[in-house]
Structure formats: C-alpha cells, structure tokens
Design brief:
Elements: H1 2-20, E1 27-40, E2 65-74, E3 80-87, E4 102-108, E5 111-117, E6 123-133
Antiparallel strand pairs: 1-2, 1-4, 2-3, 3-6, 4-5, 5-6
C-alpha cells in the first residue's frame, strides 16, 4: 500500500510540473525600424485576354497589388534580425509593428511568430519570415 501512495504522489507531481512547463517559450523583441512598400504581381494572361477586360474569364489576369512590411528587430541577446510579411488579402493579419515597441515572439523554423494587439486591442499573432540576420546573411527560405 505504501508503494502505491508514493507512485500516485509522484505521478500527480510529474503531471503538475509538466503542465507548468511552457511548451514553446516566448521572448521579447524590440522593433528598431519599419518600412512598407507596395509591389504588383506579374499578370497571368489567359489566352485571348487583355488585362483590362472585365469578363469573368479574364478577371484574374489583372496584376494584383501587395504590401510588404519589413522590420528590423532586436532579440534579447542583442542580435538584430530583419523580418518581413506580405499582406496578400484584406483578411491578412500581417501588420507593420510600431517602432520602439516591444512584442512577444516565438522562434519558428524560418522566422518569428509575433503577438501584437490590433487596432481594436485584440491580441493577434502573425508569422514574420527572417530576411536577414545581423551578419547580413539571407534567411533560409
């Protein structure tokens, strides 16, 4: 009976510790600079279409304008990263982050997932791809 109590006690303790440990730890990044620019995708011309034609068949052949937000952020260890995201639709969460503000970030495979408050104060998260690191090397794509 004594052994079962120890087993149950250790099991409960291990479960409590496992729940308390963060699965993915967030860290703070500070935005040092930010810029945005617009660019157009190359038009995809279906056969027999002029890009100004508004028929349903030719509607997708018009060039689409995108906005790319690029920022330089400082990590807790002092290293600088250039990150970017692209607004591809009106429902995109990609946003230019405020300069001199600090945000929570989580390292992902090819960049950072950053949590930020939107215009209404709702907490959003967006993936920002690493473009360059402090040594000037391009991020892996």
């Amino acid at each position: 009976m004594h052994g079962i109590r120890h087993f149950v006690g250790m099991f409960v303790l291990c479960c409590a510790v496992a729940r308390a440990a963060p699965i993915h730890s967030y860290f703070q990044v500070k935005v040092l600079s930010a810029e945005s620019h617009q660019f157009q995708s190359p038009p995809l011309y279906p056969p027999n279409c002029n890009w100004k034609d508004i028929s349903a068949y030719c509607d997708s052949s018009a060039p689409v304008t995108y906005t790319e937000h690029t920022m330089v952020v400082e990590q807790p260890d002092g290293k600088l990263l250039t990150i970017a995201c692209t607004v591809e639709s009106e429902w995109s969460n990609c946003a230019s982050l405020a300069v001199n503000q600090t945000f929570e970030a989580k390292a992902k495979k090819r960049g950072l997932e950053i949590r930020y408050p939107d215009r209404n104060g709702k907490l959003r998260k967006e993936f920002y791809m690493t473009v360059r690191n402090q040594s000037g090397e391009l991020g892996r794509h």
